[in-house]
Amino acid sequence: MPEELHDVSLRVNGITREVQVPGRRLLSDALRHDLALTGTHVGCEHGVCGACTVLVDGRPVRSCLMLAVSADGTEVTTVEGLGEPDGGLGPVQQAFSECHGLQCGFCTPGFLTTITAGLRENPCPTHDEARDMIAGNLCRCTGYQNIVRAVERASELIAEGDVVGEGERA
Amino acid sequence: MKPAPFAYRRPTTLEEALAVLAESPDAKVLAGGQSLVPLLSMRLAAPALLVDINRLPDLDHVTATADGVRVGALARHADVLASAEARACQPLVALALGNVAHATIRNRGTTVGSLVHADAAAEMPVVLRLLGGSVDVASASGRRTIAADDLFLGPLESSLRPDEIALEAFFPALAPGAGVGFEEVARRHGDYAMCGVAGLVRVAGGRVVEARAGYLSVSDVPTVVDLTDSLADGVTDASLAAAGEAALADLDPQEDIHAAADYRAMLVRHLTGRVLRAAHAHATDERGEPDHA
Amino acid sequence: MTTKMFGTKVQRVEDQRLLRGQGRYVDDVGVGAFPGMLHAAVLRSPHAHARIVDIDVADVLDVEGVHAVWTHEDLADAMAEPLPLLIPHDALTHGRTQYALARDEVNYVGEAIAFVVADDRYLAEDAVERIRVTYDFLPAVVGIEAARAATHLVHDDVPGNVGARLDQHVGDAPAAVAAAPHRLELDLTIERSACTPLEGRGTVARWDPDTSRLQVWTSTQTSTGVRAAVAAKLGLDLGQVDVITPDVGGGFGVKINHPWPEELLVPLAAKALGRPVKFTEDRREHFISSAHERGQVHHVEVGFDDDGRLLGLDVEFWHDHGAYSPYGLIVPIITSTQLLGPYKPDNYRVRFESLYTNTVIVTPYRGAGRPQGCYVMERTMDAIAAHLGKDRAEVRAANFIQPDEFPYDHQMVFQDGRPLIYDSGDYPTMLEKIKALVGWDDFETVRAEAAAEGRRLGIGLACYVEGTGVGPYEGAHVHIETSGRVKVATGLTSQGQGHQTVFAQLVADVLGVPFEDVDVVTGDTRRMPYAVGTFASRAAVMSGSAIHLAATRAKEKVLRIAADALEADEDDLELVDGEVRVKGAPGSSMSLGTVAVLSNPLRYAFDEASKSATQFSVGDPGRPPVAEDDEPGLEGKDFYSPERSTFASGMHAAIVETDPVTAEVRILQYAVVHDCGHIINPMIVEGQIHGGVAQGIGGALYERMVYDASGQLLNASFMDFLMPYVTEVPDGIDIDHLETPSPLNPLGLKGAGEAGVIPSSAVFAAAIEDAEGFPVTAMPISPSELFELRRQHASQPASQGPAPEEQS
């Protein structure tokens, strides 16, 4: 018996996308495999690592802990939506590059989305707040030192003129 | 790690949701999904039907009145944590919520969902129980209120019937003269605690008239122990130590892969003292914030 | 003027795609591009040890969307044989490897039994659930103690569960220990852990029936290794198989082992079904069906003089190899040799047994046996200092190989089968640096101040030497295009080390081209079919050297052609900003692109520039257009194959605070002094150190594989396998460098990738021991375990430092 499919309409990075998915399809899989937005990565599929973090209606959410069908009608921002409209890197991305905040890059999209939302809420974090902002994401490569620096650098870049999420076509 | 197939319904009225549940014995309710979806993905849970209640109206409230804090079934942990009114009304809720997983999980996970998931390692069930709160639930055959003492039956087992939906949790307000505290020791920041303690102390006429502590991760169900007797003659190092011993008499900490039973027992003693001391300090300093230490 | 790139903090070129979500990891391959791609799932043994009586797959094909299922019965020829034993060794008398799909016995929870291919992974998992296997249960052998006891056997034909015994010695250690004025014995344990990259394993394959060619994308540390194995197992010519390593989400060692069952089964299925097939390992699978490391038990007998100088060192250890030994004895051999660190015991004997257990296989994890060796030696040094009441740093200094003793020959055989000869180093200077960096000499004041506040502090120090850049070789191909852009290929793979950046730095320096004009490809057998792989901190040394050599060859050709064209002497030419210039003659120059045009005599022009290379424009009609000893094109290709490894070194120190009640350990300071020879990109090297330190903290204080007696892994999730978050690593890691260049390669390089993780268990055991006043001999250590140790020692008088048993 074929599985029942559900119509799901999402606004992803500012573009309305329609997919048909079974109820059990995880949002992470729908983004990656149905919408071909492979920038969102799946590291554990039980909500611990944070690699799959996307913004749902502006809030960081584990896309592996959400059913795609539950996300119907929401506004989703993935790493692909964090750049500047002209194709340049957004402030958080730029800061990661300057500070060497990534190595293999697999966990990075989850950090970028989380920090983007975090800096929107708290544009000038203290050092401790910068550490706290990334406390729910696992990275196996960097030892986090340069990611913390990147949070602080991103805050500076934003203060210098950018606005968090300006590049987000949301 | 992909869920087994299930039917999916997303009712838009409570009546519809309850009707669907009434006719589907093997259904699960999906709210935040932060505990349920991993179980589905690991195929440790494989319901025939998932009833997604996220579209039900009027369930995302966090309201504080003189009586206490009412939290709707769709209020996310983050919303409850952010509510200044809720924090003022019953500070223990926010104190404990700050220890629930990580911020991203709190953005999606619901406080009511955490309660009815009935995990003895989770923070909110024991808080509800310590405060003597309750959960309002509904089914096609009517509504009822389940007192916290009657809610937790066993590991991951609540007294909700499969056809019921939890609509709202009620956390009673901080009574005059009362103070609260919360502390836990986890392996990593944000992990389930090896032991956590929520404490409540009420002082009247300069004397401790009520002292109780709730324990997570030390028994199969969230457990509250009355320690008033231990502190009846005042809050001292000795009486706090006695309270810790008294708490242990009512608890049976077990070994798991992160902590030996003796270590847990030590944490019970230690955290009982710290939390009751903090709660007492909070109780005796009316405008003070509870100690976060 | 082109600035020199070597030694500068160049931002990574990789970041541009990775930060935009445009990286291409193996699970991204084919998404939206390979129509009809199918997805695989694997039935894995739920039992640690059992005979397979029957496998019933009858219900599987009833699942709509399921295309095929394989069990061992369905495999033929080489595929039906055991997987290769990658690194044979005479001492590995009982090497055993698993089958791609279990034949008649399973030996660990997670061993592959059946392979299902369906329209998507969800359906494939549905199908896997329908396979029914009948088992005949056998007793499980779990842990080194059970393996040694050999009450039960993992493999019927491996007596005593002993896969290998190896013995190496220099001098007469037992006699030297017996004759020494001071003697100690120590028993030291390290538990299992694992690499756990954020991305697990994965493989995609596509068969092209028109050309009879197979394309394989796999998340590996050796594309050429996988290629050879796939060709051999599937009965294909090497030339029919291309293996492409896409972006890899971390490796740390686990992805050097190959071929994994799925790396063969995916190509097999793709060929059989005529459709692209993908397997992406999930997190639980990674815990139970990839590889672990670190589990060893060691016994040390040491004799020393009044200054703490080693007179004899006699070490015996037992290595938990898991259920099979595909990677040979590399890990225990490294422990047995790298244990020596910067020291020179006059007499050394090391013996080990490699033991089978009914657990996941053991293959190298970042550090690969060195963390265990460093832990054993450094714990021994601390014990000697405690015994003599001497400063721990002083005892170490008394045993150092001195700067004027290089090359230093330990007269042992290293993991590459070559002599263990250290090429260069300066350990006394390094010790001074680490002492200064961590505040070693002031620590007693710090400790006393903290103690006055009721806080308990301890300091630890550990030194290591790391053989890096092992052979046999790596190669590189450098191609200057007519656009002037430089295309570089090397065969080893990248897992986040920034190879595209550092290798481009090297080429930019040699060819005098802008860094941005250099594109580097790694791990693609179409571009460089001869390569070994990324392991043993060898990429910079091996491929870096090969790329330097290949670029130099290309440069030689540039100079030859340009000298001809510019009518100048080669010695008068320089390569700057993508041009060849005649020194001191402004205006007399040509672009590298033009040189590339001239390097390839043409019959057919394809653009404006190439007209100058056609037959009526160029060349001496009296000579062949391509000289006998020349080739068309502006290319350089070369290989680097050193005689032996180069030895990096480092010293770490940490100050910890242990909670007097909860026994939680807080890291107050972490300091690293590191010597990897000349540094190509300091930013990347520091990043490697940061990551290694964090991984080491995980290994010392948080991570372990918890098996129960029946062989079930109890913590096969990120909930319970406790990788550090930012909250578990120190806020700041102090780093200082020392550069003793290697004389073995043209750039003086030594490896840096694994270093950060090597001394962690030694450092934290030492620091906790120093804070607590009793020996710490088993790592990792949790608060619960430290609490238990305190109780055990509470009845005994507190003593500073370790108090191992003195031999009578």
From TrEMBL, chain A:
> Keywords assigned by UniProt?
2Fe-2S, Iron, Iron-sulfur, Metal-binding, Oxidoreductase
Name the source's superkingdom.
Answer: Bacteria
Which terms in the Gene Ontology molecular function aspect does this entry carry?
2 iron, 2 sulfur cluster binding; metal ion binding; oxidoreductase activity
Keyword ATP-binding set for record: no
Start and end residues of each 2Fe-2S ferredoxin-type domain: 6-82
Q: In which pathway does it act?
A: Alkaloid degradation; nicotine degradation
The record's section on InterPro entries has: 2Fe-2S-bd, 2Fe-2S-bd_dom_sf, 2Fe-2S_ferredoxin-like_sf, 2Fe-2S_ferredoxin-type, 2Fe2S_fd_BS, Beta-grasp_dom_sf, Diverse_Oxidoreductases
* PANTHER family per the UniProt record, alphabetical: OXIDOREDUCTASE WITH IRON-SULFUR SUBUNIT
Q: What is this protein called?
A: (2Fe-2S)-binding protein
UniProtKB/TrEMBL annotation, chain B:
What are the UniProt keywords, alphabetically? FAD, Flavoprotein, Oxidoreductase
Domain FAD-binding PCMH-type intervals: 1-176
Indicate yes or no for the key word DNA damage.
Answer: no
Q: Which InterPro entries match?
A: CO_DH_flav_C (IPR005107), CO_DH_flav_C_dom_sf (IPR036683), Diverse_Substr_Oxidored (IPR051312), FAD-bd_PCMH (IPR016166), FAD-bd_PCMH-like_sf (IPR036318), FAD-bd_PCMH_sub1 (IPR016167), FAD-bd_PCMH_sub2 (IPR016169), Mopterin_DH_FAD-bd (IPR002346)
Any GO molecular function: FAD binding
Q: Under which name does UniProt file this protein? A: FAD binding domain-containing protein
Q: Which organism is it from?
A: Nocardioides donggukensis
TrEMBL record, chain C:
For the Aldehyde oxidase/xanthine dehydrogenase a/b hammerhead domain, which residue ranges apply?
A: 20-139
Tell me the SUPFAM superfamilies matching this sequence.
CO dehydrogenase molybdoprotein N-domain-like, Molybdenum cofactor-binding domain
Chain residue ranges for the region called Disordered: 614-634, 787-808
Which molecular-function annotations from GO does this UniProt entry contain?
iron ion binding; oxidoreductase activity
**Recorded superkingdom:** Bacteria
Q: Gene3D superfamilies in the record, alphabetically?
A: Aldehyde oxidase/xanthine dehydrogenase, a/b hammerhead, Aldehyde oxidase/xanthine dehydrogenase, molybdopterin binding domain
Keywords, alphabetical: Molybdenum, Oxidoreductase
UniProt keyword rRNA-binding present:
no
Q: What is this protein called?
A: Xanthine dehydrogenase family protein
Species in which this protein is naturally found? Nocardioides donggukensis
